[in-house]
Design goal:
Blueprint lengths: L44 H17 L13 H10 L17 E6 L4 E6 L12 H10 L6 E6 L12 H6 L4
Parallel strand pairs: 2-3
Antiparallel strand pairs: 1-2
Length: 173
């Protein structure tokens, strides 16, 4: 301290001068059972990264338990989404699902699929053929009894409906 006397405020306090303070130990995470700190581990940094990447890929690939086939995460639903991702807009090199043209996919227990979609503009050159292509592709998915496409204009499509993958593909991110 500077040696100055504290000003009187009606409360008494004491000042203790110390030479040094010991730094507390840093927290360490040890592997269960091996007793070694991570930096002492014989595993290389590349091995650790590979192990973490494998864990993340396995985690992301997991499917939810007890999901009906026609609900998000179910086999039939995911197969329909995969089929939709194979249809590309002729003017924009992005599939119609990631482009945000698909508003809803509803699947009944009997395998009937109703796709609600829009187009980028009512004057789109594929306004007549795109809904037919969607219907054919969805109907060809194994497990789909029949497919119906509902073309809507409200709400209108805008670029905010695109997935991040589509925005990245188009250089918008």
């Amino acid at each position: 301290m500077s040696g100055e006397e504290p000003q009187a405020t009606g409360k008494a306090f004491t000042v203790e001068e110390v030479e040094a303070v010991t730094t507390p130990r840093r927290a360490r995470v040890e592997e269960i059972g091996d007793g070694m700190a991570p930096e002492d581990s014989p595993e290389s940094a590349g091995d650790k990264l590979g192990r973490k990447r494998d864990y993340l890929e396995g985690f992301l690939a997991q499917k939810p338990d007890d999901v009906a086939p026609g609900e998000p995460g179910g086999n039939l639903y995911e197969a329909v989404i995969t089929a939709l991702r194979e249809i590309f807009d002729p003017e924009i090199p992005v599939n119609i699902y990631d482009l945000g043209l698909i508003y809803a996919v509803d699947i009944t227990a009997e395998g009937g699929v109703a796709v609600t979609m829009t187009l980028t503009t009512p004057h789109c050159p594929v306004a007549e053929s795109m809904p037919q292509e969607v219907e054919l592709r969805v109907a060809s998915v194994p497990g789909v009894r029949d497919a119906e496409v509902n073309l809507v204009w409200d709400p209108p499509w805008d670029p905010a409906k695109m997935s991040d993958d589509a925005k990245l593909e188009l250089g918008m991110l």
